[in-house]
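Entry type: protein chain
Record version: 2
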Amino acid sequence: MVARLVIAAPSSGSGKTTVATGLMAALAATGLTVSPHKVGPDYIDPGYHALATGRPGRNLDAYMCGESLMAPLLAHGARGCDIAVVEGVMGLYDGAAGLGELASTAQVAKLLRAPVVLVVDASSQSRSVAALVHGFASWDPGVRIGGVILNKVASERHETLLREALDESGVPVLGALRRAAPVSTPSRHLGLVPVAERRADAVAAVAAMAEQVRRGCDLAALVGLARSAPDLDCEPWDPTGLFPHPAPSLNPPGVSGGEGGLPGATPPDPLAGPAAPAPRHGGSAPGTPASGLRPEPRSSNAGGAEFGLPGLYGPASHRAADEHGTAQAKPVVAIAGGPAFTFSYAEHAELLAAAGADVVVFDPLRDEQLPDRTAGLVIGGGFPEVYAAELSANEPLRKAVGELARGGAPVAAECAGLLYLTRSLDGQPMCGVLDADARMSERLTLGYREAVAVGDSVLAPAGTRLRGHEFHRTVLDPGAGPAPAWGLVHPERRVEGFVQQGVHASYLHTHWAARPAIARRFVERCTP
């Protein structure tokens, strides 16, 4: 099993991202192949991790994906690597509000059986640092704190006092970073500016972080600690194994389709339930149950009833997707990328490809047309509000997106994608697919959500329950269409988003590794 360690801290602002990203880059510079990971739902830090390592940054979120997927997802990302470095979230023991340790760095470290390195902001303290470290090391016996990295150390004398104090704690000091001018990592309303928006500056920032860690930390000791992690008793998550056969519309003659999933691939989840066949555009394809998707018994408004909404859809057809079993070309699924749309989990594209799609990335800021033969469109999160004028100016692409959506093709839009599909964003014309307008707001909407699908859509049958998160400073008027995308059931009850024809648009970010059949269902609705 790959060597691994978790970089954590007593609180946010202690220097986790600087240390974790710098360590990744410094280890990669020694010739090690480093697998980068981030606890929690954050999209921005993994972009810096990817720049540091040359590999996709990947998230480990126990709330959205379930506890049992943490080790398999790490093993998947770390295939062929020498070491995995996991950056924590918030303070070591901080997790989903009101749910104990769930989704905390401490919980994920235990699930990974990984040693923890605690990054401590040592400014304005000396001997007290030992009490702080002792408290964190003894709070949960299941968490193994294998070392400390001292950050913002003022001088050699200050470092000596800190090390002498920590000698009494029994937790070794594995590094000390001097107080210095902060590395240039500009922030704005949702955190750091993503790598894709400042590539040259980001490269320089990561190089500076790597040099800080190289000079101040004992790299050999950190690698030794990572190699002390015991083997994990799990198989790597494998998107190709989740779908034993291609989607029905892609099968050669004589091969039957159907939903698939590895036993145990979907984590135990009180929100999960039985699955249903996945309908294609214009009909439904029969198949075996999809792991993790839950409709109520054959009602197309199973989720809507819970929210007092009328029936939103007619009875579903169950016509076979490819009645003659004829082999067809892979449908092209276009994924929005570029500086305006940087929020995406790597597993989504992998799942779409495993489900039978030809995945092509395009940039709505520069490309005036969708990729050739686009049969489905995925628009994830990002910062369209920053690029509203440029997105609006690309009128040919806005027209192409509108035509694709109005033609009934499957379109999955999350947060930034939702905004792009509206009539306008801060007064700038957008794609006009949704009868709604968006604008920036002073209020930050942030947090985990439990949701139920109000009606059938290209992503899930009515009644499907899953977990996601919201992260935005925009508001939509109206916030939901006649057919909402989700009914949120925790921490508050409300409906939000839009489902119309093949469009599913919502503020809710989801992680499809928890519900692989979402990708299968989406691809089955694509017509090459």
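Comment: The chain has a mean pLDDT of 85.
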